[in-house]
Amino acid sequence: MSRFAGDNYHEGSTEDVLAKDNRTFRDRISVLENENRFLRKSVYDLNMKLALARAIPGRRVPHFDVDAMLESDKGELPAELEEQAGSANKQDSRYFSFKFELRGHAGAVYCVRFSPNGALLATASFDKTVKIWDVMLRKEVLTVRGHNLNVLDLSWSTDSSRVVSGSYDRTVRLALAETGQELARRETPGLVQCVAFSPANSDVFFAGTTKKQIHLFDVRGDSSANVAIDNETMVNTIYPYRSDHLLITGDAGGLIKTWDIRSLKCMDTVLVDDLRHPISHMSASANQAADEEGRYLAVNCYDNLLRVYDRGAEPPKSRLQLTHSAGGHIVKNFPIRCSFFHGSEHHTATRVTESVGGDLNTSTNDLDADDIGVSHATSIHTSLLLASGSADNNVYLFDVEGREGSASQLQRMSGHTGRVYGIHFHPTQPMLASSSADGTVRVWAAKAKRPDRL
Asked: Could you give the 3-state DSSP secondary structure of residue 79?
């Protein structure tokens, strides 16, 4: 896969160089603080689990090595303690465990996406195909062929009936999800990096290319009616608003741009970092209602930081405000994606936490989260989580629920044997799909609630 670099940063004065070094140093401190917060949380969890296990009368608690526990990928109790503690270790339902694996692609799987209705899973691969999988049956139901080179991205229509895919063969292909029948094919001058349906109309979709262009396609007209908008650098990721005229892009110059499709003009630009690291992927949190925009935008960038921006109550009326930066994963090979999980009771439930040996409904005022390095939102249903792929073959899960700057790494999930490119949460269930350069898709689920037959 090609690796894209951002625009060259010009030589500046000594003061400019020192300022850049200072910003880099502060970013590194932020990453170390996040890692320290995660470590403190892990120690707290272990102490709580041990105390609860010892509370079981007539049971002997075996010795276990705290250092070995902290280095464990799974972060689980030893088998002996798991058996004695019973359900005590299930108290934090935000942790995900591996459920099953899907095999069938003959090459790297760059993108994985659940359908909006949650019944199907679509994948795009280096083997030039798109595959449709039945989530409940855990098997492939359709292979969509037609591209001549690797397929980098795909998107579902809002009604789950159509799939649009973009390929390095310089084409965008629209197909029926049930049969694979091609409904339309559109050509672009550049390699297609990203595609997205308009949420308002399944006949309209967008594409970003290496030729520094954003393309708008409407299959109700002929190809000559398609629109191209010029950008300064390659367009790596696209997010359409729920309205039919606004679009957000992330590019190889490290810029987040909001576009008005009607005027074909850029309305707003946000520079992710001063070194202009390329943006790999963007993801928006779930909307609260069918006609509302999600509140948060996650941006995965080549400086190995995953940033979360607050879009305000009524985007785009307010500018993006950076609220979190999370690290630990590696963004080294395009595309490394990210995805939000928005708990069904997020922002509506009363926050509760648990103290060691105390009642389950202890008030959050009785225990300071800063003292233990853990968010109050310990239920999967009230959480706002963010997952990312990584070039180190792992899936990373972050808690981005807390106040500004409090993001922390909850979990690192291992199992893939190649770079993890694709990440996507189920639209309604606490279930996560990841796709990898090893040619597989792995499905993970939270412990608290499992979809039927999982």
From this structure: helix
